[in-house]
Design brief:
single chain, mainly beta, four-stranded antiparallel β-sheet, 1 helix, 3% helix, 57% strand
Length: 306
């Protein structure tokens, strides 16, 4: 059975990264489709789509019109442009794909990088670089194009696995199992600030107001990485299950948990709302206009009107 490990959006284009256990090792698949808000689709079963694509089913019945099998599971996938995607796989390699209209995805390259499993990836605001993180404790900064990728920097400082990364105008930030979040200056390869988290960090996302949302093993933390380092803050939203995925708009933070729930935190009122429940871990969240896309280990992709 395929599980959804990551989702990404660009305009109305949606990509999902999936994995399945084949004997002793994980293999993967990347699929892309286009979301039509007017059609009001609310659910896609990735396993059904994958089986139908391999049969004689008419492609018009499928949401994911393009797909490609991979030799390793892909932990994170991101659009660089509408037609160019990059990801990080279980072998620590940076992988790249091109989407050709309604045709199949094309694999461009797989560049060796990390010494352990890749866990997350973020694209720079200028869309010419990306940062990948890994269980090996490092943050790698890459220059990327459709023809090649070059590792420009290896950022060291975390004392445990690095599970999440976020890159926006506010900077490059990474969160780790060592219960810290670090902000990096990529040009000099040095850490700018380090902040304590109340529990191991899992994922991160920048907010429009310059704060950083961090998903941890015990809840959602909101912090200002520009401020002086201080004791670990209490979670803004405590959670009995680790938070494994984050997304945000100008007034809300959306988060998915290992209990399968997809929640929204209103930054103005502090109220939380349950949007949906998956049947397993939620590992992918991304906004698509006024729609939130979530993917879980139950093999389902939900589209939530927000």
């Amino acid at each position: 059975m395929l599980r959804v490990d990551a989702v990404s959006t660009s305009g109305n284009h949606v990509a999902v990264a999936c994995s399945r256990l084949n004997g002793p090792q994980w293999t993967g698949a990347v699929m892309t489709g286009q979301y039509d808000a007017e059609a009001g689709k609310s659910l896609v079963d990735v396993n059904h789509e994958h089986e139908a694509a391999e049969s004689d089913a008419k492609s018009s019945t499928l949401f994911f019109q393009s797909g490609i099998e991979t030799d390793a599971g892909i932990a994170s996938i991101q659009f660089v442009s509408d037609t160019f995607l990059v990801g990080i796989n279980d072998g620590g390699e940076l992988v790249a794909f091109r989407r050709r209209g309604d045709g199949p995805l094309v694999s461009l390259y797989a560049m060796p990088g990390h010494d352990d499993v890749g866990t997350a990836l973020a694209v720079s605001p200028t869309a010419d670089s990306c940062a990948s993180v890994s269980l090996d404790g490092s943050v790698r900064v890459w220059r990327v194009s459709e023809t090649m990728a070059t590792c420009d920097a290896v950022l060291l400082g975390h004392s445990g696995a690095v599970n999440g990364v976020a890159w926006a105008a506010g900077g490059l930030a990474s969160v780790s199992a060592d219960c810290t979040v670090r902000l990096w200056e990529t040009g000099t390869r040095r850490g700018l600030t380090k902040h304590a988290l109340p529990s191991p960090g899992v994922c991160a996302a920048w907010l429009d107001d310059g704060r950083l949302a961090c998903g941890t093993a015990t809840g959602l933390v909101l912090l200002d990485p520009r401020a002086a380092s201080s004791p670990a803050p209490l979670p803004a939203v405590p959670s009995p299950a680790p938070i494994g995925a984050l997304a945000a708009d100008d007034t809300r933070v959306f988060f998915g948990t290992d209990a399968g729930t997809v929640m929204a935190l209103d930054l103005r009122s502090g109220a939380t709302t349950l949007l949906r429940a998956h049947g397993d871990f939620v590992r992918g969240l991304a906004r698509c206009g006024t729609t939130l896309v979530s993917g879980g280990w139950d093999g389902k992709v939900f589209f939530h009107k927000i």
